[in-house]
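User: Please fill in residues for this 903-position structure.
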């Protein structure tokens, strides 16, 4: 970002919003755009009877807003585009809402629908029906499935993956074809020799004895007239976990040989339809994948290739019949969220040849994902591809810091290692289908000499392919790099659920996830991932309310690490989704579960305090009081529950849990607050910042406790001394209480211990430990210290949520123009459009620009202690004003803020 770019904002009125799939209209025109159903673009396979519709307003006029809307839905796209719906015509609804649930005629399963919306502007002028969106329903119930659950006849310890095929004939003139497939394990779907789609590791991990996900896939373009073949390749995933580690997934109560059921629905031009279901008439065999583990690696023997196994004309006389098996559960539901993909191809930056049989590739940054090798060699050559985040002094890949929890029974399943055996037939390639890893380096070792170049190996950054909605840019390159590293770590740990690290564990650690929830939501459109993960919470919650520390789990984590400082995800995740999206559905779906959890905490905490929890995990030096931090999360859960009850019109519950929260707060302050010293417990940084951040400190003590926190930090050489819980709170506690400059000093520090220390030592992701030479807890790709990314948006960009109008309907703008930073820009695409907050320092003034999306507003608040005046540049000839709380309407606004100078 350059200063002259910023200054140009004061010469030109910023143009209106851009929305995908929308041609911007003329100035003064207004239309709905960015139509989505269930937060997805034209989704398929919905099981809900009341899908949610969202849209945004395109209107370039200042103060643009929606005063009414009309939704049309039907089965005929042309009629819908004309404003005629045979399923639902909402009529004109006087409302500014842009999130509306379907209320039309009952939706039928396996059907496609179309919808559109028009809106009335602030002058009550109607716009046009602009664009038509679609959605398709899925099975909408287990009783509609015709396909049977099938597998091969092998037992769980058989290593080779199972391949399935089904030949069938199709009539002429196929109009549409849909595949519906549910899998316990992982799968690839092939039709007529082609791998259908680019999704990876599908379906997403769930607790398989409670819930299995299915996909709806448009396969029309893959089918032929007459002869066709469906091919399905099954992987183990977390369902048949053969690798051994401390979390005991190999002992999962659901564990079995991977299985699936599927139906191919064909619709013909003459109006007829046909279903090809799974049955014992399908054929099965082994193939070249001789071992696959989501945790460790994949083994491929090209000598066992069965070419064209998924194509017509293949001789399958040696293949066996599939067998019908018991379902893992009858609860088979649609997966509706962004899929996992190979999102980015990364070429090797460097190759080192250690000897004739050993090469090390360096991809320049740490990622989650897979590598693909292309190589020629003699038949039977065995190639090991070992993936890691670090190199040893001798140049080999070093897995020492990552293998701590792995418990191998023998040497046939090496950690983070793929094994590839060549057929000897020309150039061969291999990329695993059912595994991913965390790595920057790949060590390739062969049993016989091979020739490799830098182009022989490509890395793929793999993760849930969520849309990026947040950006920051500043004059401080360190800040930019930390933000990029935080995003990389977040994505590296998003695989249909949030994980802690992509190599050593791949577990859905609850504490890691809630500390990084705002990082995720400011930067990415993650609502569907989190809605799915909360369903995982509901599956895992026991009748007494207890949740495990990792979700999903096979049973590990119910007796360690699962206190409220971790498993408060049950309240914190839904609450944050509501704040960011203004959507109450996640509150409704999880209300009883939150209540059950808080009731359990109340039952085991008769004095309103609890020491159940891990505490401030991985602290730098000072270990904070666990009873203090866990009780604060107990208080937070009770308070959130009270607020949710009020939102859902459960007013009696709201009063009960508000009273409970008050009692917890009083108990915390009575035991831990030293009013004379203005400290909590021992006065460690976490013990002061956590009560401030979570709102436990009495109003009349806030300034004093904040001053104590600042003094404690300065006494420590302006260095951090926090673990995971403190890292979530400390920057916010400072900037929200008048110490933004000190917070920025911590955020931009390059000395140990700090985020900048990691970057100064070459980090491209966030680490698990402040100490880069720690003996344990040293994954180099973790999200648990990622709150700093959200802090950039909130404190430096000043983009904050108004809890009374969630979803950024009204934005609270509280920018901090910190000393030492010359320029800063933050933007976030919320439910109403893109919010931009940008400032640059010029002499003793700040040039500040903000853009508010249509149909929303903002309240600008600037610290009066820091400014001597403010000029509102949008009003021609406006005088300097002396107030610091300004109500802004949708549109562009520019200011000069005069900074006070030291006397």
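Assistant: Residues filled in for all 903 positions:
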């Amino acid at each position: 970002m350059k200063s002259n770019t910023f200054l140009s904002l004061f010469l030109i009125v910023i143009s209106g919003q851009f929305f995908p799939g929308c041609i911007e209209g003329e100035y003064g025109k207004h239309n709905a755009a960015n139509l989505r159903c269930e937060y997805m673009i034209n989704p398929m396979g919905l099981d809900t009877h009341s899908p949610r519709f969202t849209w945004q307003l395109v209107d370039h006029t200042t103060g643009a807003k929606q005063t009414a809307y009309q939704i049309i839905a039907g089965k005929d796209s042309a009629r819908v585009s004309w404003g005629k719906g045979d399923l639902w015509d909402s009529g004109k609804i006087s409302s500014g809402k842009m999130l509306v649930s379907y209320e039309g005629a009952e939706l039928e399963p396996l059907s496609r629908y179309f919808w559109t919306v028009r809106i009335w502007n602030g002058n009550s002028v109607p716009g046009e029906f602009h664009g038509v969106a679609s959605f398709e329903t899925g099975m909408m119930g287990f009783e509609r499935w015709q396909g049977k659950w099938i597998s091969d006849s092998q037992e769980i310890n058989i290593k080779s993956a199972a391949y399935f095929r089904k030949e069938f004939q199709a009539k002429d003139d196929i109009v549409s074809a849909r595949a519906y497939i549910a899998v316990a394990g992982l799968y690839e779907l092939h039709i007529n020799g082609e791998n259908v789609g680019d999704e990876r590791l599908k379906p997403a991990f769930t607790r398989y004895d409670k819930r299995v996900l299915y996909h709806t896939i448009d396969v029309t373009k893959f089918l032929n007239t007459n002869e066709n073949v469906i091919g399905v390749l099954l992987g183990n995933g977390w369902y048949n976990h053969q690798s051994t580690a401390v979390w005991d997934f190999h002992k999962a109560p659901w564990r079995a040989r991977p299985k699936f059921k599927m139906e191919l629905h064909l619709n013909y031009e003459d109006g007829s339809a046909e279903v090809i279901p799974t049955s014992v008439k399908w054929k099965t065999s082994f193939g070249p994948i001789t071992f696959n583990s989501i945790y460790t690696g994949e083994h491929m023997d090209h000598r066992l290739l069965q070419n064209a196994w998924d194509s017509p004309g293949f001789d399958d006389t040696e293949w066996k019949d599939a067998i019908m098996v018991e379902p893992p559960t009858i609860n088979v539901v649609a997966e509706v969220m962004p899929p996992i993909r190979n999102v980015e191809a990364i070429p090797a930056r460097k190759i080192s040849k250690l000897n004739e049989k050993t090469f090390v590739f360096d991809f320049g940054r740490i990622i989650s994902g897979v590598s693909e090798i292309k190589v020629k060699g003699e038949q039977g050559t065995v190639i090991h591809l070992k993936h890691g985040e670090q190199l040893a002094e001798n140049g080999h890949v070093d897995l020492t810091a990552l293998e701590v929890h792995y418990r191998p029974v023998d040497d046939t399943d090496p950690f983070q290692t793929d094994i590839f055996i060549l057929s000897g037939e020309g150039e061969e390639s291999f990329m695993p289908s059912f595994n991913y890893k965390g790595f920057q380096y790949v060590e390739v070792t062969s049993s016989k000499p091979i020739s490799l170049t830098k182009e022989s190996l490509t890395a793929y950054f793999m993760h849930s392919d969520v849309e990026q909605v947040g950006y920051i840019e500043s004059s401080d390159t360190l800040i930019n790099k930390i933000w990029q590293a935080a995003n990389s770590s977040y994505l590296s740990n998003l695989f249909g659920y949030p994980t802690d690290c992509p190599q050593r564990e791949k577990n859905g650690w609850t504490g890691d996830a809630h500390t990084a929830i705002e990082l995720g939501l400011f930067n990415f459109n993650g609502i569907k991932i989190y809605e799915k993960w909360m369903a995982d919470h509901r599956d895992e919650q026991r009748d007494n309310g207890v949740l495990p520390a990792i979700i999903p789990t096979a049973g590990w984590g119910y007796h360690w690490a699962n206190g409220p400082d971790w498993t408060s995800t049950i309240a914190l995740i839904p609450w944050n989704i509501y704040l960011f999206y203004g959507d109450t559905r996640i509150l409704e779906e999880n209300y009883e579960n939150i209540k059950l959890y808080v009731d359990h905490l109340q039952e085991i905490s008769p004095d309103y305090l609890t020491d159940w929890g891990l505490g401030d995990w991985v602290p730098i030096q000072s270990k904070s009081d666990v009873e203090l931090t866990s009780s604060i999360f107990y208080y937070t859960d009770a308070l959130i529950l009270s607020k949710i009850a009020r939102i859902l019109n459960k007013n009696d519950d709201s009063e009960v849990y508000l009273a409970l929260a008050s009692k917890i707060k009083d108990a915390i302050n009575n035991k831990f607050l030293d009013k004379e010293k203005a400290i909590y417990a021992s006065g460690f940084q976490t013990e002061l910042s956590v009560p401030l951040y979570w709102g436990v400190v009495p109003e009349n003590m806030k300034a004093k406790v904040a001053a104590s926190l600042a003094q404690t930090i300065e006494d420590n050489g302006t260095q951090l001394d926090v673990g995971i819980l403190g890292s979530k709170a400390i920057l916010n506690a400072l900037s929200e209480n008048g110490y933004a400059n000190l917070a920025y000093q911590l955020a931009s520090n390059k000395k140990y211990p700090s985020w900048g220390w990691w970057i100064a030592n070459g980090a491209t992701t966030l680490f698990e430990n402040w100490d880069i030479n720690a003996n344990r807890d040293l994954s180099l790709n973790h999200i648990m210290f990622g709150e700093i990314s959200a802090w950039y948006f909130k404190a430096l960009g000043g983009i904050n949520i108004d809890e009374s109008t969630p979803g950024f309907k009204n934005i609270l703008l509280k920018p901090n123009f910190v000393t030492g930073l010359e320029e800063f820009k933050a933007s976030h695409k919320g439910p109403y459009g893109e919010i931009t907050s940008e400032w640059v320092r010029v002499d003793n003034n700040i040039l500040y620009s903000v853009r508010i999306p249509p149909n929303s507003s903002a309240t600008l608040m600037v610290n009066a202690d820091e400014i001597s005046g403010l000029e509102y540049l949008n009003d021609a000839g406006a005088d300097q004003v002396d107030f610091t709380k300004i109500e802004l309407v949708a549109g562009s606004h520019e200011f000069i803020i005069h900074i006070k100078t030291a006397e």
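For context: Residues 341-464 form a domain with the Jelly Rolls fold (CATH 2.60.120.260).
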